[in-house]
Design goal:
Elements (H helix, E strand, L loop, with lengths): L1 H7 L22 H15 L9 E6 L6 H10 L9 E3 L3 E3 L6 E13 L2 E7 L6 E8 L2 E8 L5
Parallel strand pairs: 1-4
Antiparallel strand pairs: 2-3, 4-5, 5-6, 6-7
């Protein structure tokens, strides 16, 4: 009976990805947030995802992610924390809990026109990926080219 109880506990954990929240990929004016949303879905729900990840923050560069877009991402991904919650200590840590944190970044982001953008994403334990985004049928679509970047 005890092993069954132990298996039931993770079922009570908060979901990592709230699909009922509006998808940012459907907002043509928010391609950077759409790229982060796409990367977060892979981080929380993709191969290698852990059921209890550390605090996760996101960063978009060269421009900062607008506060309303960060709030929309946090509504969609309940395990996401505001960017200012993750700070360098030595290593990245959650400034509230003092525990380890991770930063998922989108960088080198640029749009050549209103329908095509490119950018890189990087998350701990995952290869950096260059994405080409296209606006198709009312949503951003993503094509990735994985590359391991030495840091």
């Amino acid at each position: 009976m005890v092993p069954l109880l132990a298996m039931a506990v993770p079922a009570c954990a908060p979901p990592l990805h709230d699909v009922s929240a509006p998808a940012l990929a459907q907002d043509r004016a928010a391609p950077g947030a759409a790229l982060l949303e796409h990367a977060l879905a892979g981080f929380f729900d993709g191969p290698g995802a852990t059921p209890d990840p550390p605090t996760v923050c996101v960063e978009l560069s060269p421009d900062a992610l607008p506060a309303e877009q960060e709030a929309a991402l946090m509504a969609r991904f309940p395990r996401l924390a505001p960017r200012d919650r993750c700070e360098q200590a030595p290593g990245l840590m959650d400034r509230i809990t003092g525990e380890r944190a991770v930063l998922l970044q989108a960088y080198g982001f640029a749009c050549s026109d209103a329908q095509t953008c490119t950018g890189w994403t990087n998350a701990p334990g995952r290869p950096a990926t260059r994405w080409t985004m296209r606006w198709v049928d009312g949503a951003w679509t993503f094509a990735g080219d994985r590359r391991i970047i030495a840091q």
